[in-house]
Specification:
The complex is a heterodimer. In chain A, the strands form two sheets. Chain A has a four-stranded antiparallel β-sheet, with no helix packed on it. By secondary structure, chain A is an alpha+beta fold. Chain A is built from two helices and seven strands; from the N terminus they run βααββββββ. The relative contact order of chain A is 0.17. Chain A is 47% helix and 29% strand. In chain A, helix 1 packs antiparallel against helix 2. Chain B is an alpha/beta fold. Chain B has two domains: 1-34; 38-176, Periplasmic binding protein-like II (D-Maltodextrin-Binding Protein, domain 2), CATH 3.40.190. Chain B has helices spanning 2-10, 12-33, 53-60, 76-81, 96-102, 166-176; strands at residues 41-46, 50-51, 70-75, 91-95, 118-120, 123-128, 137-138, 145-149. Chain B has a six-stranded mixed β-sheet. Chain B has a two-stranded antiparallel sheet with strand order 2-7. Chain B is elongated. The chains are: A alpha+beta, B alpha/beta. At the A-B interface, helix 1 and helix 2 of A face helix 1 and helix 2 of B.
């Protein structure tokens, strides 16, 4: 039976996440700047007309701008930041090999300010009964074909698959 | 989906804070930018059950006295929120129960308009509104309301030797409103 090693993490990945983080930071600030520009426009018209008529539009634009900004920071930038930290830790950590039969579960875990991960059950191994896999790596991991996995801090970082 | 919901909930305070901050900060900014210097505006302060401030101001702005840029109508709750606003008022609409306590801020009026006017120490301090402008102002049916002038108003003409009598003209408009 032939096998091959499939690495789930690559060196370039960290750089890609860092770049994505910069781009999303810029996007989030652009959203805020756009909202502020619209608000200033309404303020100028309010100043000229000396009325509160445009205040509801300003409040709506401001709330919408902040909501988009926060959502980007909470759901995109925070995830990218956590992913970079995770990859850094994985690369520095000591790897061990776990053998057995693996099956991906539907159980997802999320640690605050951390990454989202999915639980992987291990059978046929006396010491290890479960591992985790970074959610973004789930599609790369073919549990049915895996005969052994490389594990760092409980995360699957590579696997040996039957060909 | 569960994780997304959990994350939204754990950050809910940030969303709420931004919404509240937006409302408060922009309202404050609008108050400043839509304001005019005291010499160019007449402010009506209403200590009434309610007042349609924007609507009443709009009506009173139709015929602005010379030299006046705007008319502001404020409910007394606004005064409680913005310190020092009471010094800006030119015209007060005050319930009878609060008249005596307010006299030190008011200017005596030269004449009575009706028998129901507020008289203290032989001097008239407030003209009885008698339901005037009730389309815009909500009155408490158990109270009489009076229209009075602030002692410090720069728009009272002969009443306190100020340059113009814009506040008196605006007050006359209020008294004639349905």
């Amino acid at each position: 039976m032939d096998t091959k090693i499939i690495e789930l993490y690559s060196e370039e990945e960290e750089t890609v996440y860092r770049k994505k983080r910069i781009v999303w930071n810029v996007v989030s600030f652009l959203v805020l700047a756009a909202a502020l520009t619209v608000c200033v426009f309404f303020c100028v018209s309010a100043y000229r007309a000396e009325t509160f008529d445009t205040l509801p539009y300003v409040i709506f634009t401001s709330i919408a701008g902040w909501t988009v900004y926060l959502t980007i920071r909470i759901f995109v930038i925070a995830d990218l930041k956590a992913a970079v930290k995770h990859i850094e830790a994985i690369r520095k950590g000591e790897a061990e090999i776990v053998t057995g039969r693996f099956s991906l579960t539907k159980e997802r875990l999320y640690i605050k300010k951390g990454i989202a991960m999915t639980k992987v059950n291990v059978s046929g191994n006396d010491k290890v009964t479960s591992l985790q896999i970074f959610d973004k790596k789930k599609k790369l991991f073919d549990a049915d074909k895996a005969v052994s996995v490389k594990v760092v801090f409980g995360f699957i970082t590579a696997y040996e698959a039957e060909v | 989906m569960k994780i997304v919901f959990k994350r939204i909930l754990s950050n809910l305070h940030r969303y709420v804070l931004c919404a509240l901050g937006s409302v408060l900060i922009w309202t404050w900014i609008f108050t400043i930018i839509t304001d005019a210097p005291r010499a160019k505006k007449v402010t009506v302060m209403c200590d009434t059950v309610s007042v349609q401030d924007a609507l009443l101001a709009e009506v009173l702005k139709h015929e602005l006295p010379k030299g006046i840029r705007t008319v502001k109508v404020r409910h007394v709750s606004y005064m409680e929120m913005t310190f020092g606003m009471d010094d800006e008022a030119d015209i007060y609409i005050i319930p009878g129960s609060k008249m005596e306590a307010s006299i030190e801020y008011l200017v005596p009026l030269p004449e009575r308009r009706s028998d129901g006017d507020a008289v203290f120490g032989g001097e008239v301090y407030g003209w009885l509104l008698d339901g005037a402008a009730s389309s815009y102002i909500g009155y408490d049916a158990s109270e009489n309301y009076y229209l009075c002038f602030s002692k410090t108003s720069p728009h009272l003409g002969e009443l306190n030797d100020s340059k113009d009598d814009a506040a008196v003209k605006i007050a006359q408009m209020i008294l004639l409103l349905p």
